[in-house]
Amino acid sequence: MSTPRTVPGIRSSKRRTGSAPLVMVTAYDAPSARVATAADVDLILVGDSLAMAVLGYDDTLQVTIDDMAHHTAAVARSKPTAVVVGDMPWMSYHLTPRRTVENAAKLIRAGAHSVKLEGGAKRATMVEAIVAAEIPVMGHIGLTPQSTHVMGGFKVQGREAEAARRLADDAKALQEAGCYAVVIEGVPDVVGELVTEAIEIPTIGIGAGPGCDGQVLVYVDVIGLENRFKPKFVRRYGTAFDDQSAALSRFAADVRDGTFPAADEAYKANDTLTEALGLYGRAPSPSSSAQAPQA
Ligand code: KIV
């Protein structure tokens, strides 16, 4: 049985003060959240990667706050011990502080313990508004997928010294605005380190090198359910696509050759019913007289 994690516990998990690296994984429904809980992760991110990982979109811009609340609720119903982070989708925190707080509240009411949003210093006002409503906020800088059109695609960020320093400033601005942790995505490893050293709150990296205070990966990448492409920073720990398609192929073969279901996988009627239906003594399956019913 794993220990329930808390936001204050996460906030104080800095590796330079001796904390173990934080482990975060995305999950989008109750079964994946149960698996993540069994693996004793520290944080479950109901990421807007939902759009691509589960809903079949080409980018994350298509999901709405209601989509995110729906999936956050499914994760929360599994009662994870990890801190559940609800990702705020594009256009849910860009307009006014009031709408931003209302949208963050939707994710909290759905069962999240905190929310995450993308962007650095320019998001400080929105972060402050959410924090003022007693909702913990995780930041997200570097390669921010919601900015795909501005970045010209999913491109590594912070490759120039000036851009790297701006990322460290962004992380500081998020910390000052009240974030309890910051995701750094898609930056050179030294930039991951620079940002981690620049702030007191933990950094959680994805494609940001080993110098961060924790690591996050997307569920379907970790278990190998996504088998079409593998970004450089992904390590697959399973072969879920192959395992699951092999299992379904065996199911299909058993149905087609009549070996599923077997006699002991069917409900049995008593003799009275069997007799009343005029089926007494008849084999249940056209394919297998060896599997005659035992009343
Ligand atoms: O949506 C997501 O999965 C994320 C992670 C890549 C950090 O934001």
Number of domains: 1
- What is the terminal separation in angstroms? 42 Å
- State the total count of DSSP E strands: 8
Strand order of the largest sheet: 1-2-3-4-5-6-7-8
Category by helix and strand content? alpha/beta
Radius of gyration: 24 Å
Task: Tell me the series of helices and strands, N- to C-terminal.
Answer: HEHEHHEHEHEHHEHEEHHH
- Describe the global form: elongated
CATH architecture: Alpha-Beta Barrel
Describe, in plain words, how this protein is organized in 3D.
This protein has an 8-stranded parallel β-barrel with strand order 1-2-3-4-5-6-7-8, surrounded by 5 helices. Helices cover 38% and strands 12% of the residues. Residues 287-295 have low confidence and may be disordered. It has a single domain (7-239), classed as TIM Barrel, CATH 3.20.20.60. The chain has helices at residues 7-11, 30-38, 50-53, 65-77, 97-109, 124-132, 148-151, 161-177, 189-198, 219-222, 240-256, 271-276, and strands at residues 22-26, 43-46, 83-87, 114-116, 137-142, 181-185, 203-206, 214-217. Helix 6 links the parallel strand 4 and strand 5. It is α/β, with parallel strands linked by helices. Helix 6 packs parallel to helix 8. It has 12 helices and 8 strands. It binds 3-methyl-2-oxobutanoic acid. Residues 26, 45, 47-49, 87, 140, 183, 185, 206, 216, 218 line the site of 3-methyl-2-oxobutanoic acid.
